[in-house]
Amino acid sequence: MKAGSALLSVGKIVLYATKTALVTAATKAWTAAQWAWGLAMKAGSALLSVSKIALYAAKTAAVTVATKAWTAAQWLWGAAMKAGGGLLNVTQLVLYHAKSIAIQAATKAWTAAQWLWNAAMNANPIGLIIVGVAGLIAAGYALYKNWDKVKANLIAAWNAVRNAVKSFWA
Q1: In whole angstroms, how far apart are CA 70 and each of 6, 57, 85, 136?
Q2: Pair 74, 107 in one domain
Q3: What is the pTM assigned to this prediction?
Q4: C-beta atoms surrounding 121 within 10 Å
Q5: Sorting pLDDT into bands at 50, 70 and 90, what band is 49?
Q6: Pick from 87, 77, 81: which is nearest to 15 by CA?
Q7: How far apart are CA 86 and CA 22, in angstroms?
Q8: Which residues contact 123 (CB under 8 A, 6 or more apart)?
Q9: Which domain holds residue 139?
Q10: What's the pLDDT at 10?
Q11: Which residue has the higher pLDDT, 108 or 131?
């Protein structure tokens, strides 16, 4: 159980480190996009006096750069989420396997304990009496089911004894 918890903790640390690195990269990309946008706005303001067409072209270029930076930031964020989810799934699988092994060991230990308890109860005088009575009931049932065969064997045995006694006295 402790090994599974340790693996889960290590998995969480790796997941956290991976997410942190990817979120940091996404934040830097966003900051660069904001900087590019601010620069485009300043350039646009300066170019206003020169020409409205130049302003439009500069703003369009800045928006394009900002959009691409934002797209990159979103991609990095998605990669961070996917990487973290994969690490969490592996950790959970390892933890599940460790729990399964522990449950299997506990079941075997319980089976051994139950077997020992049954042996102790059968060695008890009351347990022996119960087993003896159950044996007599089983023997009576077997006698009842096979009465025709038993009767034939008893008659044959009695005739053999009677014939032996007759031949001895004769």
Answers
A1: 37, 20, 23, 88
A2: yes
A3: 0.29
A4: 13
A5: low
A6: 87
A7: 15
A8: none
A9: 124-170
A10: 60
A11: 108
